[in-house]
Design brief:
Length: 200
Amino acid sequence: MKLFVSLLSPYVRKVRMVIIEKGLSDRVELVESAPYDKPADLIAANPLGKIPALVRDDGTALFDSPVICEYLDSLSDKNPLLPAGGEDRIQVLQLLAFADGITDAAYLSTMERRRPADEQSDTAWQALRDKISRGLDALEHNTPDINADLNLGALGLAASLGYVDFRHGDMNWRDGRPNLTAWLDEISKRESFKETAPPA
Ligand SMILES: N[C@@H](CCC(=O)N[C@@H](CS)C(=O)NCC(=O)O)C(=O)O
Protein backbone atom coordinates (compact mmCIF):
# COMPACT_ATOMS: atom_id res chain seq x y z
CA MET A 1 0.00 0.00 0.00
CA LYS A 2 1.08 3.59 -0.55
CA LEU A 3 0.31 6.42 1.83
CA PHE A 4 0.65 9.99 0.56
CA VAL A 5 2.13 12.01 3.41
CA SER A 6 3.83 15.11 4.66
CA LEU A 7 5.86 14.42 7.79
CA LEU A 8 4.66 17.75 9.24
CA SER A 9 0.96 16.90 9.01
CA PRO A 10 -0.86 16.05 12.27
CA TYR A 11 -3.40 13.92 10.36
CA VAL A 12 -0.54 11.95 8.84
CA ARG A 13 1.09 11.59 12.26
CA LYS A 14 -2.07 9.98 13.61
CA VAL A 15 -2.18 7.50 10.72
CA ARG A 16 1.53 6.71 11.09
CA MET A 17 0.99 6.03 14.78
CA VAL A 18 -1.77 3.60 13.85
CA ILE A 19 0.54 1.88 11.33
CA ILE A 20 3.22 1.42 14.01
CA GLU A 21 0.82 0.32 16.74
CA LYS A 22 -0.75 -2.24 14.39
CA GLY A 23 2.61 -3.61 13.25
CA LEU A 24 1.95 -2.68 9.61
CA SER A 25 5.08 -0.66 8.83
CA ASP A 26 6.34 -3.25 6.33
CA ARG A 27 3.11 -3.07 4.35
CA VAL A 28 2.83 0.68 3.90
CA GLU A 29 5.16 2.76 1.72
CA LEU A 30 5.22 6.45 2.67
CA VAL A 31 5.20 8.75 -0.37
CA GLU A 32 6.03 12.41 0.32
CA SER A 33 3.51 14.71 -1.30
CA ALA A 34 3.02 18.49 -1.38
CA PRO A 35 -0.78 18.87 -1.50
CA TYR A 36 -0.79 22.58 -2.37
CA ASP A 37 1.12 21.79 -5.61
CA LYS A 38 -1.85 19.58 -6.60
CA PRO A 39 0.24 16.57 -7.68
CA ALA A 40 -1.57 14.33 -10.17
CA ASP A 41 -0.94 11.09 -8.24
CA LEU A 42 -2.45 12.55 -5.06
CA ILE A 43 -5.45 14.02 -6.91
CA ALA A 44 -6.03 10.63 -8.57
CA ALA A 45 -6.18 9.05 -5.11
CA ASN A 46 -8.12 11.88 -3.46
CA PRO A 47 -9.87 14.41 -5.70
CA LEU A 48 -9.97 16.75 -2.68
CA GLY A 49 -6.17 16.89 -2.94
CA LYS A 50 -5.54 16.30 0.76
CA ILE A 51 -3.11 14.12 2.61
CA PRO A 52 -3.19 11.54 4.04
CA ALA A 53 -4.57 9.39 1.21
CA LEU A 54 -4.04 5.63 1.10
CA VAL A 55 -3.81 3.63 -2.13
CA ARG A 56 -4.47 0.00 -1.41
CA ASP A 57 -2.78 -2.94 -3.14
CA ASP A 58 -5.77 -3.37 -5.48
CA GLY A 59 -5.42 0.28 -6.56
CA THR A 60 -8.47 1.58 -4.71
CA ALA A 61 -7.93 4.61 -2.52
CA LEU A 62 -9.19 5.68 0.89
CA PHE A 63 -9.41 9.07 2.60
CA ASP A 64 -9.75 10.93 4.91
CA SER A 65 -7.73 10.02 7.97
CA PRO A 66 -10.48 8.46 10.16
CA VAL A 67 -11.46 6.11 7.33
CA ILE A 68 -7.83 5.19 6.72
CA CYS A 69 -7.36 4.53 10.46
CA GLU A 70 -10.42 2.29 10.65
CA TYR A 71 -9.27 0.36 7.58
CA LEU A 72 -5.76 -0.14 8.96
CA ASP A 73 -7.20 -1.27 12.28
CA SER A 74 -9.09 -4.00 10.43
CA LEU A 75 -5.91 -5.41 8.86
CA SER A 76 -4.26 -6.87 11.95
CA ASP A 77 -5.31 -8.24 15.31
CA LYS A 78 -2.50 -6.44 17.13
CA ASN A 79 -3.66 -3.61 19.43
CA PRO A 80 -7.36 -3.40 18.45
CA LEU A 81 -8.04 0.36 18.27
CA LEU A 82 -11.79 0.57 17.66
CA PRO A 83 -14.43 -1.43 19.55
CA ALA A 84 -16.74 -3.38 17.23
CA GLY A 85 -19.92 -1.69 18.42
CA GLY A 86 -21.99 -0.26 21.23
CA GLU A 87 -21.30 2.71 23.47
CA ASP A 88 -17.57 1.90 23.69
CA ARG A 89 -17.25 2.43 19.94
CA ILE A 90 -19.25 5.66 20.06
CA GLN A 91 -16.99 7.02 22.81
CA VAL A 92 -13.82 6.24 20.83
CA LEU A 93 -15.28 7.84 17.69
CA GLN A 94 -16.39 10.88 19.70
CA LEU A 95 -12.89 11.39 21.11
CA LEU A 96 -11.40 10.93 17.64
CA ALA A 97 -13.78 13.54 16.19
CA PHE A 98 -13.05 15.91 19.07
CA ALA A 99 -9.28 15.52 18.68
CA ASP A 100 -9.51 15.94 14.91
CA GLY A 101 -11.64 19.05 15.42
CA ILE A 102 -8.92 20.59 17.57
CA THR A 103 -6.39 19.59 14.91
CA ASP A 104 -8.57 21.24 12.24
CA ALA A 105 -8.67 24.51 14.20
CA ALA A 106 -4.92 24.40 14.85
CA TYR A 107 -4.07 23.59 11.22
CA LEU A 108 -6.44 26.21 9.80
CA SER A 109 -5.15 28.90 12.15
CA THR A 110 -1.60 28.08 11.03
CA MET A 111 -2.71 28.43 7.41
CA GLU A 112 -4.61 31.65 8.16
CA ARG A 113 -1.30 33.25 9.16
CA ARG A 114 0.27 32.14 5.88
CA ARG A 115 -2.09 34.12 3.67
CA PRO A 116 -0.74 37.27 2.05
CA ALA A 117 -0.73 39.98 4.76
CA ASP A 118 -3.64 41.91 3.22
CA GLU A 119 -5.82 38.78 3.12
CA GLN A 120 -5.31 37.74 6.73
CA SER A 121 -8.11 38.05 9.25
CA ASP A 122 -7.32 38.46 12.94
CA THR A 123 -10.97 37.69 13.70
CA ALA A 124 -10.86 34.35 11.86
CA TRP A 125 -7.51 33.47 13.43
CA GLN A 126 -8.71 34.31 16.95
CA ALA A 127 -11.92 32.31 16.47
CA LEU A 128 -9.84 29.26 15.52
CA ARG A 129 -7.48 29.70 18.46
CA ASP A 130 -10.51 30.00 20.77
CA LYS A 131 -11.74 26.63 19.51
CA ILE A 132 -8.39 25.09 20.46
CA SER A 133 -8.55 26.62 23.96
CA ARG A 134 -12.15 25.58 24.58
CA GLY A 135 -11.45 22.08 23.33
CA LEU A 136 -8.41 21.68 25.58
CA ASP A 137 -10.33 23.08 28.58
CA ALA A 138 -13.08 20.51 28.08
CA LEU A 139 -10.51 17.73 27.81
CA GLU A 140 -8.76 18.96 30.95
CA HIS A 141 -12.03 18.51 32.87
CA ASN A 142 -12.78 15.18 31.20
CA THR A 143 -9.37 13.71 30.44
CA PRO A 144 -9.29 10.26 28.81
CA ASP A 145 -8.24 7.42 31.12
CA ILE A 146 -4.55 6.81 30.44
CA ASN A 147 -4.95 3.28 31.77
CA ALA A 148 -7.70 2.44 29.29
CA ASP A 149 -6.79 0.29 26.29
CA LEU A 150 -5.12 2.27 23.53
CA ASN A 151 -7.65 3.41 20.94
CA LEU A 152 -8.02 5.62 17.85
CA GLY A 153 -9.33 8.55 19.87
CA ALA A 154 -6.24 8.56 22.09
CA LEU A 155 -3.91 8.41 19.07
CA GLY A 156 -5.82 11.29 17.47
CA LEU A 157 -5.52 13.35 20.64
CA ALA A 158 -1.79 12.62 20.96
CA ALA A 159 -1.24 13.78 17.37
CA SER A 160 -3.38 16.85 17.98
CA LEU A 161 -1.55 17.94 21.14
CA GLY A 162 1.76 17.25 19.40
CA TYR A 163 0.70 19.63 16.64
CA VAL A 164 -0.39 22.34 19.09
CA ASP A 165 3.10 22.05 20.60
CA PHE A 166 4.70 22.15 17.16
CA ARG A 167 2.85 25.13 15.65
CA HIS A 168 1.22 26.91 18.60
CA GLY A 169 3.85 26.72 21.33
CA ASP A 170 3.01 30.34 22.23
CA MET A 171 -0.33 29.12 23.62
CA ASN A 172 1.52 27.39 26.49
CA TRP A 173 -1.42 24.99 26.59
CA ARG A 174 -0.02 23.04 29.58
CA ASP A 175 -0.53 26.05 31.86
CA GLY A 176 -3.54 25.28 34.10
CA ARG A 177 -4.09 21.89 32.43
CA PRO A 178 -2.23 19.37 34.62
CA ASN A 179 -4.47 16.41 33.75
CA LEU A 180 -4.01 16.77 30.02
CA THR A 181 -0.29 17.43 30.49
CA ALA A 182 0.11 14.19 32.47
CA TRP A 183 -1.93 12.34 29.87
CA LEU A 184 0.34 13.50 27.02
CA ASP A 185 3.48 12.81 29.08
CA GLU A 186 2.37 9.22 29.46
CA ILE A 187 1.27 8.50 25.89
CA SER A 188 4.33 10.26 24.48
CA LYS A 189 6.48 7.44 25.92
CA ARG A 190 5.14 5.15 23.18
CA GLU A 191 7.45 4.36 20.27
CA SER A 192 4.67 5.31 17.86
CA PHE A 193 4.65 8.87 19.23
CA LYS A 194 8.42 9.19 19.38
CA GLU A 195 8.99 7.83 15.88
CA THR A 196 6.48 10.20 14.28
CA ALA A 197 7.67 13.50 15.75
CA PRO A 198 7.85 16.22 13.08
CA PRO A 199 11.40 16.56 11.70
CA ALA A 200 13.29 19.46 13.30
N1 LIG B 1 -10.08 15.85 7.38
C1 LIG B 1 -8.86 15.52 6.69
C2 LIG B 1 -7.90 16.69 6.77
C3 LIG B 1 -6.62 16.48 5.95
C4 LIG B 1 -5.90 17.78 5.68
O1 LIG B 1 -6.48 18.89 5.76
N2 LIG B 1 -4.61 17.68 5.31
C5 LIG B 1 -3.85 18.87 4.94
C6 LIG B 1 -2.39 18.71 5.32
S1 LIG B 1 -2.15 18.77 7.07
C7 LIG B 1 -3.92 19.04 3.44
O2 LIG B 1 -3.71 18.09 2.72
N3 LIG B 1 -4.18 20.27 2.97
C8 LIG B 1 -4.22 20.58 1.59
C9 LIG B 1 -5.53 21.19 1.18
O3 LIG B 1 -6.41 21.40 2.04
O4 LIG B 1 -5.70 21.44 -0.02
C10 LIG B 1 -8.26 14.23 7.27
O5 LIG B 1 -8.56 13.94 8.43
O6 LIG B 1 -7.54 13.51 6.57
